[in-house]
Automatic annotation (TrEMBL):
Originating organism: Acrodontium crateriforme
Biased composition regions of type Polar residues, renumbered to the chain: 271-282
Coiled-coil portions: none
Lineage: Eukaryota, Fungi, Dikarya, Ascomycota, Pezizomycotina
Biased composition range(s): Basic and acidic residues: 253-267
Stored Gene3D superfamilies: Ankyrin repeat-containing domain (1.25.40.20)
Name this protein carries in UniProt: Ankyrin
Domain of life, source organism: Eukaryota
ANK repeat ranges, renumbered to this chain: 39-71, 145-177
Length: 282
């Protein structure tokens, strides 16, 4: 008769959730069932690595990870196996149920994000790894060789992953322990050109955002100078500094209002050149 532990592994591989439940209910001690001939992978490792979401959910509900997150002989979690093999549905389940496993690393220093970056089929999992509210994956993490997720994405030729990682601030100039940047690992000339264009695009956006921020600060400072009566600028210089702000951001009605009369009264200076608005007694 075939041993129950072997039958359980076969049932998981076949995706037979009914048989899996039956075997575990009859043999509760086999819930984790590590396979010492295969990296000590547990039942959940096996289900995650082969994309058996229904079975993975049952194993979790049965208490598979009750004490701690399972790790195999390479210190890999079930989430890492799901990420390596492109099983997004199981990966999302594991992120939701065990968010702390997102930032865990294996013996090579790879986390789930770096592993997912190696597999183009796991691109759909990457946004969920990056956006986990309590344990978000970092695009700047490095493995034992100094490689970032961007290095792995470039080496795997996963162009969508490159775009996602760059959009969240991954450094395209980061060097690994061998002094190589992610660009050096491009699989083809076309991929290299695409990577360069992506980097140029995001750099252009950064420059534009910096200019917009500088413009906002300039306009804000210009508004402050209007209120400050101790400024050495005369009226024409004030108008030159904030004129553009008035034209772009103030309504026609607001332009008719005096600049800042109240502080001038507080300092004892009479209001000069004031006039009422037409049609009102103000």
């Amino acid at each position: 008769m075939i041993d129950a532990s072997i039958r359980l592994r076969r049932a998981i591989l076949l995706g037979d959730s009914v048989l899996v439940e039956r075997i575990i209910k009859c043999n509760p001690r086999l819930l984790q069932n590590p396979d010492f001939h295969n990296q000590s992978n547990t039942s959940l490792h096996l289900a995650a690595g082969h994309g058996k979401a229904l079975i993975a959910s049952f194993l979790i509900d049965a208490g598979h990870e009750k004490s701690e997150v399972s790790r195999n002989a390479s210190h890999e979690t079930p989430l890492m196996l799901a990420a390596r093999n492109g099983h997004v549905e199981v990966g999302r389940l594991l992120i939701h149920r065990f968010p702390r496993c997102v930032t865990m690393t294996n013996e090579a220093g790879l986390d789930a994000l770096s592993i997912a970056s190696q597999a183009p089929a796991s691109t759909g999992l990457i946004p969920f790894l990056l956006s986990e509210p309590d344990y978000p994956a970092s695009p700047h993490t490095q493995d034992q060789d100094g490689n970032t997720p961007l290095h792995h994405a470039s080496a795997s030729g996963s162009l969508k992953t490159l775009r996602i990682l760059l959009s969240v601030g991954a450094n395209p100039l980061a060097k690994n322990n061998y002094d190589w940047t992610p660009l050096a690992y491009s699989q083809t000339v076309a991929a290299e050109v695409y990577f360069k264009n992506l980097v140029a695009e995001f750099e252009r956006r950064k420059i534009e955002e910096a200019k917009m921020s500088e413009e906002r600060n300039r306009l804000k400072n210009g508004g402050v100078r209007l209120v400050d009566d101790e400024s050495k600028l005369d009226e024409s210089e004030d108008d030159e500094v904030i004129g553009d702000a008035l034209r772009r951001h103030w309504s026609p009605l607001e332009r008719k209002l005096p600049a800042a009369p109240l502080p001038r009264h507080e300092w004892g200076t009479p209001v000069q050149h004031s006039r009422t608005r037409s049609g009102s007694g103000d």
